[in-house]
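Two records follow; treat each independently.
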Amino acid sequence: MTLTDIIQILLLIPVAGGSVFCLLCVWAAGRFMSAPRSAATYLPPITVLKPVYGLDKGLEDNLLSLCRQDYPDYQIVIGVQRLDDPALPLLRRLEREFADRITLVVKPSEPVVNGKVQNLVNALAHARHDILIISDSDVRLAPDYLQTIVGPLADPDVGYVCTLYRSVAADRWFEKFELLSLNADFVPSIIFSAVTGAATFCLGASVAFRNSDLKAIGGMAALGDYLVEDHEMGRRLLALGKRMVLSPHIVEVLADYGSFSVWWHHQIYWDQNTWAANPVGFALTILTRAVPFALIFAALRGFDVAGLQVFGAALAIRLGTAAIIAGRYLHDREGLRALWLLPLRDVLALASWYIALTRRTFVWRGHRFGLTKSGRIVPRDGAELPLTAKAV
């Protein structure tokens, strides 16, 4: 057996592993999304924390979707970290329009470590209720979101509740890569983990929990030097003996990237988050990347019949299973139309996976930070990058 033969056999491991994983994700999605849902009966007063940094695409509609919830008693605390934030005129107008609902907190807080946590700490000081929800600025909500996400917290053993999210409004070709990364890769993996218990997680873009539990794990500020603050919060809540609930409710996250470069840096940042949350699990995802390794396999064989058959089978399974999940379970028509880009996105994802394993810096909102091997943030080195779109 030659070295080339050995390499080809090794390449078939992720091809087979990735294809099987795609099929398992369809099974998991069917099982998870078909589970019966109970009617909302637990409707305590709640505070929604909404960190804002800049004028994101669709921000007004995102905020209005929160202000117009079908829920009896809730407070919205919007946190802003800059006195010159371009979103402030909009936020002040909404504060006047929904004076009984919105509390706007403007406190200069230049990011030193995790900027989102710093923003949340400022907002949390004005929360009136024990039940808290974090909802990112790029999230758009259905009218029944609050009653759906808060329901499982009626059980005191539940520590936090997350919802699924689906990327939408991918207007540019490189934003469609983000849509596919989320809808065809991240969400199916999350559903698989929830059904099988393969990994624990906490989805910080849409999560409900109790302030009393947060205080029991050290408070929000204690999460400030973690890159993946939501995962660390979830880990600590689980360590209290609490459990996590993943709701089948789907919120929308708007894809908002000014250029391919901005998206690419965000993709690496996203992979760095995954690596920091679960280093071993992230490294092992190399075994599920069927399409790029099938392409390499076919290329090594000179694109002969056997090579093309392997590549064709891997591609058909990847596209077919992604189409089933997008169409049947996520109701993602945008994703179905963008599936032709999925093979290229998968090849790019292999490159970003490698970079995330080796790079020890990351960029957040135009600021560069260091990253330790344990996933902790090293205060920024003072270098700032141009702020384009929402960056990373």
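The next record belongs to a different protein.
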Amino acid sequence: MSKEFEVHMLNDQGKSYAREMAGKFDELLDWCKKIGEPGRELSLTATKLEEACFFAKKAMAIKKENQE
């Protein structure tokens, strides 16, 4: 199977990193919502942050040290 489609089971360290990463992206989105005007641009910001968080977590999960 191509590595792009592999499933990576996280160990405790990986799960901790994933939670911390999600929290940081959430903080950034909250800050953007506080200073930005609701609308298309803010909606796109949320979508792009969600996408960035997904790929950042995937990059972290690929490291063997974060896997079971």
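Discussion point: The chain has one domain: 10-62. How would you locate this feature using only the token line?
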